[in-house]
Write a structure and sequence with these properties.
Blueprint: E1 2-3, E2 18-22, H1 30-53, H2 58-80, E3 84-89, E4 94-99, E5 105-110, E6 116-120, E7 128-133, E8 136-139, H3 146-164, H4 168-171
Antiparallel strand pairs: 1-2, 2-3, 3-4, 4-5, 6-7, 7-8
Helix pairs in contact: 1-2
């Protein structure tokens, strides 16, 4: 669900006190995809060869087309999984950056003192995690599961609570 990402660490801004990268879950890795495609290819070739030997040679081409379509569908799906969102909290801003599969970035900044984190349960649908401030609302983490949204929202709420409360050492009288 979350991991650190090198693009968030930069010398030109304050070091975030909370940082996370939200990634979609990928249930099939590269090795699993290779095994799956080998299995599909083997079954399709075997079935096509059987029809070829029975005299229905055009079926072999259609079986090859099936394999190609399955491959293309998975490649399109893998491309869509390149989306990710970064959440960084500093003393003066909560920034959410969404990076699309094509690399385009879109960022939103919130004042950490005014922003609220919500997870809305919806009957018959997945929950919805959002940030709200001054009448504006940003829905994010749509690719997370319901338990992951709840866990992340709780962690972000705690980080915001820590950022809002002054340090005891800094407020002590001199």
């Amino acid at each position: 669900m979350t991991e650190t990402h090198p693009t968030l660490q930069g010398p030109d801004g304050p070091e975030p006190c909370f940082r996370a990268v939200l990634n979609p879950h990928r249930s099939l890795g590269p090795r699993g995809f290779l095994i799956f495609m080998l299995a599909v290819s083997t079954i399709s070739f075997g079935t096509g060869l059987m029809f070829f030997l029975m005299g229905a040679w055009p079926v072999l081409g259609f079986m090859g087309l099936d394999v190609l379509l399955v491959y293309v569908a998975f490649r399109i799906n893998f491309r869509a999984l390149r989306v990710y969102e970064t959440v960084a909290l500093t003393d003066d801003a909560l920034t959410v950056t969404r990076v699309a599969p094509d690399g385009n970035e879109q960022s939103w900044r919130f004042n950490p003192y005014w922003v609220s984190v919500r997870v809305d349960e919806r009957v018959g649908l997945s929950s919805e995690m959002s940030l709200a401030s001054h009448g504006k609302r940003l829905i994010f983490g749509a690719f997370l599961t319901d338990p992951e949204r709840k866990e992340f929202a709780d962690a972000l709420k705690e980080a915001l609570r820590d950022a809002r409360s002054p340090d005891v050492e800094q407020t002590a009288f001199a």
